[in-house]
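Re: Re: ligand-bound prediction request (bumping)

Still looking for help on this. To restate: I need the protein modeled with guanosine-5'-monophosphate bound, output as structure tokens. Inputs repeated here so nobody has to scroll up.
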Amino acid sequence: MILGRMRGAGIARAVMQGPRPVVLSGPSGAGKSTLLKKLLKDYENIFGFSVSHTTRQPRPGEVNGKDYHFVTREEMQKEIDAGEFIEHAEFSGNMYGTSKGAVQAVQAQNQICVLDIDIQGVKNIKKTELNPIYISVQPPSIEILEKRLRDRKTETEESLQKRLTAARVDLELSKEPGLFDLVIINDDLEKAYSELKEVLLEEIKKTEESRKS
Ligand code: ADP
Ligand code: 5GP
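Reply:
Sorry for the wait, this slipped through. Here it is.
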């Protein structure tokens, strides 16, 4: 376990030499992927997505290796046991995790690494030396979250209920002072996106400058 953590810290140290990573967290359905896709499209060369592993089934349109590495529980456990993950967690009946390779792939491009992880992931990343900017994206209310999740049409009734339960826990735990550098309430998408860009402006500028030199 200690070895695992040291390995995690090793990669984190390596990442610190590049631009500061960004963690986007918050309840499922809050709008993380929507905001991230906009950011990655507008700043194609500046940000790079840390492609997580998951044991959940792909949704229509999701691409293996781009949205996630879709794997079996056995495959993922084997890689975790081999010390290949920085963090991993069980969420809504499936395993999710960030491999060292996922962060290294972004780092190799000298891009700002963006991680989309749940609150357990946030707590585990805090134990490493990754030193990212922590942002929580939250819905205006649980009712609106439920409507967005239903309208997204990606969940069964069972997984929707699990996600809503996890969302309530997430919103409670997110109140911990200092856990996040910024909480964005995603009511109006454009407003939420502006707030996200504003907090990242300094890192964006630094990365753009480093490209010029
Ligand atoms: P997450 O990645 O956090 O699970 P998504 O980005 O998939 O959430 O967003 C959940 C759903 O809500 C999607 O169908 C998305 O189009 C929609 N959505 C996101 N932001 C807003 C917003 N500000 N207003 C209305 N709908 C939104
Ligand atoms: P989804 O199934 O909707 O893509 O993701 C469900 C939840 O898993 C989201 O809260 C998302 O942030 C989280 N998640 C995705 N990848 C990872 C990961 O690598 N680690 C952790 N801890 N959570 C993740």
